[in-house]
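U., I forgot to send this yesterday:
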Amino acid sequence: MTADIDRQAVTRVYARWAPVYDFVFGAVFARARRAAIAASDRVGGRILEVGVGTGLSLPYYSRNSRIFGIDLSEEMLRKARQKVADRQLSNVEKLAIMDAEHLDFPDASFDVVVAHYVVNTVPHPEMALDEFARVLKPGGEIVIINRVGAEDGARRLFEEWFQPFATRLGWRSEFPWKRFEQWAQRTRHNVRLIERQPVPPLGHFSLIRFGKAAAAAGAGRLEATNVV
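Result:
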């Protein structure tokens, strides 16, 4: 699991995307983003959105949830802050520059950690996932929208061929499901898969939910549902 993505390069890429990001990606990923927000709001409480970007998701959270958004790109966050001001999103606690692999929060700070299209863009995905689990409260959920690579066939061959180009853009075209499975098995944090569902566009992305075991003695194991 090499660090084939450079953090500074990713920051530069998203600084360039910031002016047009909403126009290019807003509608394309809207349904998947809304599904992740709905899953997050079902848990509610204090929510950390990692890779909040231009704040596309912020207006759609329940006003009963408190949102803390982080991103590496100041240019993207500037757009997000403008949305918060324009729409008077009083439930947004703060927006800050922060590295997903080194979250500046104490353990068990959030009821939900959300990451839209983030895990396959960081240099060390498993480190980021460990940080998500660390700052999550017992009984909370990690809600992820992420590209899941093909296991075989023509799409798998294309992803392997395209990977050098994707790396220059700051993301991975090949990101097999087994990386999530292996992380969940070996992390020191007690997490279990709750749900994995394909989401638009084209089913190349998935809504993935992991739950962190409740602290109470005798709490049952979380069972996976709707797994495909």
